[in-house]
Amino acid sequence: MEPLNESLFDAQALEFPAALASALAPPALPGHYDELRGQATPVAPVRPAPGPATPPAPAAPQLYDAAAERPVAAGQSQSQSQSQSQTQTQAPASEQPPLTPAWNAFFEQLGPGGFNDLPRRAASLERQIRDNGVTYNVYADANGPQRPWSLDLFPLIVSPESWSQIEAGVLQRVRVLDRVMADAYGPQQLLAEGLIPPALVRGHPGYLRALHGVKPPGDTWLHIAAFDLARGPDGNWWVVSQRTQAPSGLGYLLENRLAITRQFPQAFEALHVQRLAATYSAMMEGLQRMCPAGVPPHIALLTPGPYNETYFEHAYLARYLGITLVEGSDLTVRDQRLYLKTLQGLRPVHGLIKRLDDQFLDPLELRPDSTLGVPGLLQAIRAGNVLVANMPGSAFLESPALLGFLPGLARRLIDEKLMLPALPTWWCGERAALESVLPQLGDCAIKPTYPGFDGRASFDAVLGSQLGRRELDEWAGRIVREGDVHTVQGYLPLSQMPTWANDMGPGHIAPRAVMLRVFAVSDGARSWRVLPGGLARLTEPDAQFASMQRGGSSADVWVQTHGEVDRTTLLQPHSTPASLARHRAPVTSRAAENMFWLGRYTERAENAVRLARLTLSLLGSEDQSSRPLLEWLHHMALRNALVPSGVPSAPQSRRVFERALIAELGDVTRGGSVGFSLRCIRQAAAAVRERLSQDNWNQIVRTEADFLRRAAEQADEGSFAASAALRALESASTALAAMTGAQTDRMTRDDAWRLLSIGRHIERLGFLANALEAGFDNGAVHEVSGFEAMVALFDSTITFHARYQQRRDVATMVDLLVLDAENPRSLAWVTQTLRGRIARLAGSAPGKLTALSYELPDPAGWTLEHLCAAGPDADYPELVKLLASCEAAAYHVSDAIGTRYFTLTSESLRSVGA
């Protein structure tokens, strides 16, 4: 690449950033449409040459040195560039076409910092995505299931003229698809007339015969449809594919919009970019009007769960729309009606936005191995008692083969010619199409007719231009043998938009191929509107397909308008108590159960860490002569699964016992180990990820990873020394304290939090009551070392010594660890707190207890004299009896809570709000 004229980078260049962008930005590849300049880059003529042809070397990307405000030659450092800038005279570059008016205005609105500020904005954008916890899960990613969402700094700008073409064409196509689906599940006239081959409907694995004859509310089958578009070298948009089952992107494009407009607020206003909120509002109003009985109707968003690749979007979209995020286990069907299982009982659900593929929706009638769906859901749909967006059974519309038949279907169904063309497509199940396309395989894409269905020879799409002659012959043979499962589509060079890349120094503008996903959403019965924006997906530099799963990235989409910008917002300026109550999502039984167990496992991990630290410290101390103490430590370690059952006891073989305890710390397969509890914390937290702050979630993930890494490193070395184990436990203890602080101080006090707190206190009550009971049973509390160990296990050493000085009698222990209503680890405090929070969970007025609260002992009746009364054998029978009753009551209450709030059995089977 020839060096650019240095006159472009004098002091006046800051006043003309658009001219600088034009000079710095390389053109699109030959034959591709250049979004930045609004025209296709011409293909250089091929000149015959003697001898073998040598392909031209690719041009090096032009870098931009933000400090020197000038380009950096390929292979040259910034310092070299700066030292040469005053002495080197560059030859003028070939004249580049001017930028489009929109891009010219965008760069002119960069502000006083101009190009110098772009690296800072890119870093700010990356930090914002990370801080907001925007993720896209990649199942095959070796670095873990979650990675940050990839978003480019520059938006894709669509002119009003281009958008008019897109909008009209998309509206037309969604009308056609909706009627095709209505016919496929109704009279099937299109099949009878031969306008669609039966193999693409009845023979499609996604066609649900169980819904034939069903008519959805409003006679509307498609409520959300996505269309993937590409711009060809002629500047026109072409349809590449369509998504109707559970199209993704509606949430990510919102996050993209918020993030990019924060970086370029002046440009966003100056370019008259259409807002998005009005379309989302119209979609929700349309769904509410079409829902079966219910005022206001209760609409939920059905997600496969936190391990789905787009789970962040599901949670984000549910919050934005003010609807309930649910999983299949949150729902149940009773008497052909759909209900949400909440802490207050069964609540009717009238509408469902599904983000789940159809085959997993109902294990009774579809995939029997699905744990993601709702048994009986299809029966509720057939009964007309629930609206589902989109109606199940639309998978056959996603087949690429259908694109070739849509022009004829449009003329038949709506008597119109399609305004937005699709790429030439041949379904190889037809003999004529097969014979026509085989000679063209090298210039086309080969796609599966039934994508996503393993039983029908599904495969990844391939480009014929990337295949050798032998591979093309092999594909041709497969197509001839199984023509119906193969669809061939013409290849279109994707347009390229400018992106900001930091991979070659201070940053540079680089062209990247882009595909645009736009959405049509229903705003009423058989009525749709197109969202004025979309999700732009960018390919990797060497990739031919735009795919987030293959490492692609995204960009915001700015649709310009010549008219007034619609400034509708979903934020209500004058909220009322009723409107606020409607937006307060109910706590589902699943979320409540996971919060309950998050609390229990956090407390269990803290107890295990404290017990393990205490045990290792005592085993390594000089005073190891107390047999009752060693027996007590062995009992506690065995009961809490810190050591296997067959390990010799501490009095029998102190060192073997110590090594066994250390070896078990990082075991994630045995309940009770520290590693197992930390993993359970993460799994429970992942199920309620939308309820946790990003800092809290990061802390949970780091704690587990750090502890298991330390354990694995020691295991690889063949030993895990007590000193190293203690350091790992100390680090885990600090991290768990941070988790406890987040749970105590940074979470809303709703019913979900109450269950988290109840779970913690149930675990604490059972653990501490058993520890005291075991200490009294074997007499460890009557020795100084055992007494101190007991107080330390209750995390009350400092308080004890400050209050009682050198006293070591049973009365002082009972006073602090059993009766003290101000000590959060005393049995009285834990029991009283549990009684109150259980009553509050049931909706009782302050100070009023419920029947379940009375299942716990009442601390008001405990007295020091009664509990410290010695028995005939110099024991304390009343105290031991109380400790046993506390432990038994804790786990009895746990079972009762599960029955009442999580499984919704027996007396809890009632509906609310019907």
From TrEMBL:
Region (Disordered): 26-100
Coiled-coil region: none
InterPro entries: ATP-dep_Glu-Cys_Ligase-2 (IPR051680), CP_ATPgrasp_2 (IPR025841), DUF403 (IPR007296)
Protein name: A circularly permuted ATPgrasp family protein
Positions with biased composition (Low complexity): 76-90
DUF403 domain mapped to chain residues: 588-902
Biased composition (Pro residues): 45-59
Protein species of origin: Variovorax gossypii
Ranges for domain Circularly permuted ATP-grasp type: 155-538
